[in-house]
Amino acid sequence: MPPPRTRRRPPLLLLAFLAIGAAVVYGGVSVYRDQQSGTAGKAKVTECTGGRKYQPAIRCRGTWIQGGSLLDGGSVVVGPVEGAGYGDVGKTITVRIHGTDHATKPSLATPLVLWGLGLPVIALSLWGLVAWWRRD
Description:
Elements: H1 12-36, E1 39-50, E2 58-66, E3 75-82, E4 92-98, E5 102-104, H2 109-134
Parallel strand pairs: 3-5
Antiparallel strand pairs: 1-2, 1-4, 2-3, 4-5
């Protein structure tokens, strides 16, 4: 008579990596949705800060018109322009406007990097869990 099968715990490290990979992929989806939602418009980038040794993130500010033309009751909004860089200062760029909150310069670079990092982590974690599951 074979010995009874004992119940094995799933490897917690693989489950943790699976959750981290899923969070990174979700971050890419969230950034992509932010860049594709909102109203299409133009923003003039006025200034950028950061990008230095102790402030690696680049934060840019700009102006755009919210609510139609100024003659039709629209208003000028000053706020952050996400995805803009030092090369955009003084230029009027195409953005997606999210009300008075922020504007986003569309770019696939960040979502692709996040997906490229997260999907292999998920795949390797699932491969490890399947190998653990099939093991006698």
